[in-house]
Amino acid sequence: MNGRGDGGASVYAKVVVDLLHPGHVRFFAAARALGSRLTVCVVPDERVAAYKGRPPVLTLEERVEIVAACRWVDAVVTDGPRVIDRAFMRGGGYDIYAFGGAHEAELATKLADCADLPEAMRAIIPYTPGISSTLLRHRLAGG
């Protein structure tokens, strides 16, 4: 492992990116700043629907294209596991798993999903206040 922010670490993150907004962009920039390479898993539609109770607004293909166009993202995958453990990180050559949570319950779930990782391999990136895909959906609905 190369360590955080030394320019050599490989960072892994997974996202939904239902509707791209500045919070996503800031997350990608912060995650990329932890190392020299950022790989982002865009969560497949079926998993999003199971987790959030509804499908994403954009299709997986659309979300992948958007994330791949972000200048801080070096690679995009769609087949990452829900639970992030040392074997997965080692197998992918990743040093740091970057994630955030919109609220305490979501953050607790994400921490449980990477409980196998030592603290040095986890980077919690704070959410951007006042913006989320859920808030954008409400705006679009006239709320």
What does this molecule look like?
With about 140 residues, the protein is an alpha/beta fold. It contains six helices and five strands, in the order E-H-E-H-H-E-H-E-H-E-H. The longest helix is centred in the N-terminal third of the chain and has 11 residues, at about 20-30. Mean pLDDT is about 90; it is low at about 1-5.
Give a short synopsis of this structure.
The chain is an alpha/beta fold and 143 residues long.
Tally the helices: 6
Q: How many beta-strand segments? A: 5
What is the 3D form?
A: globular
Tell me the distance between the termini. 47 Å
Helix content: 25-40%
Give the spatial strand order of the biggest sheet.
3-2-1-4-5
Strand content: 15-25%
**What about the largest sheet?**
5 strands, parallel
Output the structural class: alpha/beta
Q: What is the element string, with H for helices and E for strands? A: EHEHHEHEHEH
Which spans of ≥5 residues are poorly predicted at pLDDT below 50?
1-6
Overall pLDDT score: 91
What are the main properties of this structure?
single chain, 5-stranded parallel β-sheet, alpha/beta, 143 residues, 37% helix, disordered N terminus
Task: Please specify the SSE layout and strand pairing.
Layout: E1 10-15, H1 22-32, E2 37-42, H2 45-52, H3 60-68, E3 75-77, H4 86-92, E4 96-99, H5 104-113, E5 122-124, H6 133-140
Parallel strand pairs: 1-2, 1-4, 2-3, 4-5
